[in-house]
Amino acid sequence: MALTRFSVSLDSDLVGRFDARIKADGCPTRSKALGDLVRESLVRREWREGDEVAGAIVMVYDHHKSDILRRLTAVQHDCHEVIISTQHIHLDHNNCLEILAVRGEAAIIQGIVQRIKAVKGLKHITLAAGTTGREIA
Amino acid sequence: MALTRFSVSLDSDLVGRFDARIKADGCPTRSKALGDLVRESLVRREWREGDEVAGAIVMVYDHHKSDILRRLTAVQHDCHEVIISTQHIHLDHNNCLEILAVRGEAAIIQGIVQRIKAVKGLKHITLAAGTTGREIA
Amino acid sequence: MALTRFSVSLDSDLVGRFDARIKADGCPTRSKALGDLVRESLVRREWREGDEVAGAIVMVYDHHKSDILRRLTAVQHDCHEVIISTQHIHLDHNNCLEILAVRGEAAIIQGIVQRIKAVKGLKHITLAAGTTGREIA
Amino acid sequence: MALTRFSVSLDSDLVGRFDARIKADGCPTRSKALGDLVRESLVRREWREGDEVAGAIVMVYDHHKSDILRRLTAVQHDCHEVIISTQHIHLDHNNCLEILAVRGEAAIIQGIVQRIKAVKGLKHITLAAGTTGREIA
Q1: Is residue A135 pLDDT above 90, yes or no?
Q2: Looking at the partner chain, which of D1, D18, D135 has a beta carbon nearest the beta carbon of A42?
Q3: How far apart (Å, rounded) are the C-alpha atoms in residues B136 and B121?
Q4: Is the pLDDT at D137 greater than 90, yes or no?
Q5: Which tens digits make up the pLDDT trace of A51-74?
Q6: Angle between helices C30-48 and C106-117 (to 10 degrees)
Q7: Label partner for D36 (CA 20 to 30 A): which of B10, B93, B101, B129?
Q8: CB contact B24 to C (< 8 Å)
Q9: How do residues B105-129 score in pLDDT, each as one tens digit?
Q10: What burial class does residue B107 get, using C-beta atoms within 10 Å of its C-beta: 0-12 exposed, 13-18 middle, 19+ buried?
Q11: What is the dihedral of CA B48, B54, B56, B57, to 10 degrees?
């Protein structure tokens, strides 16, 4: 991995405030902290611009609800090119936490979330919008 | 599961617009769509008020980066009461997508995200803020 | 204004939890609370789909910074069809809070935010994404 | 204003991607773009930690709705220490866009939003979370 070294000029007060925050967060260096902000801004842009992205779809449902397992499985098979694997946790007697690892175009992943959302009996669905890391060094 | 049936009075134009949206989204009934909005508002509140919640922490990193595997494992072991299980995907030769299924107090889970964020070599981290479903019928 | 009255069936526990939240928030009725959730979901959609929207662009800057007043004025005049009026508050000797009331297509308003963001000397800019109210009864 | 000049080491690919984004956004220099990311992260933190902040509360309502003007005025007078000034736009025959410039503790401002939200007849309310600029150089 090649590093580029460059200099930055920022207001001295701003640098002081940023250093205090970095220290409070246990972040080792200014370069690490600035790099994190840059990477986050690039990942937000990947999702906005519809690039290939990766992440997780997280659902909670009561497996007793009529037909929900069959319906969720049907949607997932329709979208198998994008769903890499599934993690299932029995939260209690009734509730399941199911996490789909996904990778594909941002719009396709958001479309899967919409389709699953329409399934009757689902309690909650949310998306962790991550990255494939390929363009994020 | 007991159902409560009650009536709602809303502006007729608003109901018309909402019905159009529901139909476009493939949502089967008004009750399902209103229930989804209610559940989402309650889950947001669980996170704001620090209740017990569930969800997923999603990380992307290059496993070649010096020492990152040891550091990530160390944080995860410190927090093993909250991390239920881990799903690991080899995105390509360099990049790993790692998804931690989590359950615990909202503030503890957000603290883990902060700790992992400080690990050098991590490319991206994001949180899917879900629910245990226990209070969300 | 015509009202439509319809009935909704939701899980009894969910209704109980929602009622508790409504009461805590000082919201007068279930119809008001459900209507608010419906309206919020429709306004989010207006922004996503690029409809005509309204809102406010909120900037903070130090008016001593060289040339910033001229630059901000130039951008605003370029976009005068969308900027309805401006509110300016002298926060202290250095800092100005400037609030632009805006109305127009969602993408145009977001483009103005991007253009202003590039102006040197600006400290912060953020957008309140509201509605014209025409489609939100 | 004193400037601090320091150097940063980031992965060369990351710098290349960031430079492309900066150019596309019309941002003049890397220092400006990095400074913007730092300032945004500090303002998010001001809101999270309950510091003194500034911003705008943006409401839309139909002024014909019974009693809404009296109710909104009552809340605003209760909170007059925090509301600096108000901008009112007649969007059409029915709809008003009202923008409150606010300054005070983050929790107090969020509490005002909750109180206004409970007013019957309000169509939409949203908050632009800005800064006083005092700690953001």
Answers
A1: no
A2: D18
A3: 38
A4: no
A5: 999 999 999 999 998 799 999 999
A6: 70
A7: B129
A8: no
A9: 999 999 999 999 999 889 999 999 9
A10: exposed
A11: 50
Average pLDDT, chain C: 94
Single out the residue of C68, C98, C100, C69 nearest to residue C82, CA to CA. Answer: C100
Q: Which residue has the tokens 């006083």?
A: D132
CB C75 within 8 A of CB C112: yes
DSSP A2: -
A88 touches chain B (CB under 8 A): no
Strands of A83-90's sheet in order across: A83-90, A95-105, A52-62, A122-129
Give me the helices (H) in C7-136, please.
Answer: 12-24, 30-48, 68-78, 106-117
**How large is the average pLDDT for residues A123-137?**
94
Quick one: how far is CA A96 from the chain centroid? 20
Which helix (H) or strand (E) is C84 found in, with range? strand C83-90
Q: Is B77 exposed, middle or buried (0-12, 13-18, 19+ CB in 10 A)?
A: exposed
Look at phi and psi of residue D127 and say left if phi exceeds 0, alpha if psi is from -120 to 50, else beta: beta
Mean pLDDT calculated for residue range D78-91: 94
The structure tokens 């509490």 sit at D111
Count Cβ neighbours within 10 Å for each residue of A104-134 and write b for 16 or more, e otherwise.
bebebbeebbebbbbbbbbbbbbbbbbbbbb
pLDDT score of C137: 82
Taking residues B63-78, report their average pLDDT: 91
The mean pLDDT value for B3-18 works out to 95
Cβ within 8 Å, pair B17-C41: no
b/e burial code for range A44-79 (CB count within 10 A of at least 16 → b): eebbeeebebbbbbbbbbbeebeebeebbeeebeeb
Q: Are A110 and A127 in contact (CB under 8 A)?
A: yes
| H or E element in which residue A1 lies | none
Q: Specify the residue for token string 């502006």.
A: B11
CB contact under 8 A, C5 and B9: yes
CA distance D50 to chain A (A): 15
Distance of alpha carbon C123 from alpha carbon C62, whole angstroms:
7
CB-nearest to C131 from D28, D118, D123 is D123
| Average pLDDT along chain D | 94
Structure tokens, D5: 């000049």
First to last CA, chain A: 9
Amino acid identity for residue D3 in this structure:
L
Q: What is the mean pLDDT of residues D41-58?
A: 95
Q: What is d(CA B80, CA B102) in angstroms, rounded to the nearest whole number?
A: 9
Q: Which whole number is the average pLDDT over A25-34?
A: 94
